TrEMBL record:
This is Zinc metalloprotease. Binds 1 zinc ion per subunit. The active site is at E68. It holds the Pfam family Peptidase_M50. Zn(2+) binds at H67, H71, D166. GO terms for cellular component: plasma membrane. It is a multi-pass membrane protein. The keyword Zinc applies. GO terms for molecular function: metal ion binding; metallopeptidase activity. Residues 252-309 form the CBS domain. The chain crosses the membrane at residues 12-35, 47-66, 107-134, 140-165, 185-205. Keywords: CBS domain, Cell membrane, Hydrolase, Membrane, Metal-binding, Metalloprotease, Protease, Repeat, Transmembrane, Transmembrane helix, Zinc.
Length: 371
């Protein structure tokens, strides 16, 4: 997921937010300041509600971040690499590069998030008690009650037993432990995610129809996201089952036509792009190391008269933004990475030895299906 705003690093893990978080924050602040707080603590000046609402929304965002960081830190404890943590529309995602090594790690990584939300709910609940004892202003108590409730809801919602929700991962870990087959467990968990997504959509529609208010739409949107995420995970699970331990080396295109960052766009177009039936090409530096990727669309944007004087490296995607994988890694593991990128570069001893596209993965899966 693209991070619109990078917040920095926590324990070495890049943390950022997607723009959709700002929309949610605005909706939360508005709802708190105009409805929740004035109802529970009436008779205050407007600015008190708005200031408290902003503070509560920021605290909510921080508890969301704590939830995701808990996943990420437990993952790292088990040696699973964490790419980044991103907060977005429906909460957050901790993007893990590797799979859990065993069922227990899978269980603890998945459980850490909801557990953190439960702890946050309890802490804010404790805050409510403290506020009551100390005789704090009612508007503050109302904000703390809201924070305790929303964290509790977050924990419960995330524990619904369908992947990619945390509860689905917990289910997967338990089935994996009992039956000893990770892929089968994963398939069951993603199917459950599909069903839960569908149920949420139906519940949302029922709410809209019965109340005549659009609030149920929200539930429907969440259900739709869950369903499409479950579908994507199911495709990955199927790849895993088919490709097994087949390494990237056996799936990749080992003879990709490539460009050089110092070459002119004109030269590249004549010698490489016009000869190959591809839309994206890897770049190789003089030593044979990966040096980025260029799409036909990038080249097409350069006016014809400027092509002889424009270096390919100027229009290409920078090497640090193109996914690179080792040739020895299992191909099934990189299927999600390939699905998110036009091209994945394959390296061995720092040298570019091939590329993998979605078509290569699909082709390998179809070959594997043959009896
Ligand atoms: Zn979670």
């Amino acid at each position: 997921m693209t991070q619109t705003l990078r917040l920095g690093r926590v324990a070495g893990i890049p943390v950022g937010v997607h723009w959709s978080v700002l929309v949610i924050m605005a909706l939360l602040v508005q709802g708190l300041a105009t409805a929740v707080l004035p109802t529970s603590a009436p008779g205050r000046p407007n600015w008190v509600y708005w200031a408290t609402a902003v503070g509560a929304a920021v605290l909510f965002l921080l508890s969301l971040l704590a939830h995701e960081l808990a996943h990420a830190l437990v993952a790292r404890y088990y040696g699973i690499r964490v790419q980044r943590v991103t907060l977005w529309l429906l909460g957050g995602v901790a993007e893990l590069t590797d799979e859990a090594p065993h069922a227990r790690a899978d269980l603890f990584v998945a459980g850490a998030g909801p557990l953190t939300s439960v702890v946050a709910a309890a802490a804010f609940g404790g805050g409510v008690v403290a506020a009551a004892v100390l005789g704090a202003p009612a508007v503050l108590t109302a904000a703390l009650v809201w924070l305790a409730l929303i964290n509790a809801i977050l924990a419960v919602f995330n524990l619904l037993p369908g992947a990619p929700l945390d509860g689905g991962r917990v289910l997967r870990a338990i089935l994996w432990r009992i039956r000893g087959d990770r892929e089968q467990a994963n398939l069951v968990a993603t199917r459950a995610g599909h069903v839960i997504g569908l149920l949420l959509i139906l519940a949302g529609m029922a709410e809209v129809l019965s109340t005549g208010q659009l609030r149920g739409l929200w539930l429907g949107i969440v259900g739709w996201f869950l369903m499409s995420a479950a579908t994507a995970e199911q495709a990955n699970a199927r790849y895993r089952a088919l490709l097994g331990k087949l390494p990237v080396r056996d799936v990749m295109n080992p003879y990709p036509l490539s460009g050089n960052p110092d070459q002119s766009v004109d030269d590249f177009t004549r010698t490489v792009a016009s000869r190959a039936h591809h839309r994206a090409f890897p770049l190789r530096d003089w030593y044979g190391r990966p040096a980025g990727m260029v799409r036909l669309a990038d080249v097409a944007r350069v006016p014809i008269e400027a092509r002889p004087s424009t270096r390919l490296g100027e229009v290409a995607t920078r090497p640090d933004l193109v996914p690179v994988v080792a040739a020895a890694r299992p191909a099934a593991e990189i299927a999600p990475v390939v699905a998110r990128s036009d091209l994945v570069l394959v390296v061995e001893d720092d040298l570019l030895v091939g590329v993998v596209s979605q078509a290569d993965i699909a082709r390998a899966a179809e070959l594997a299906r043959q009896p």
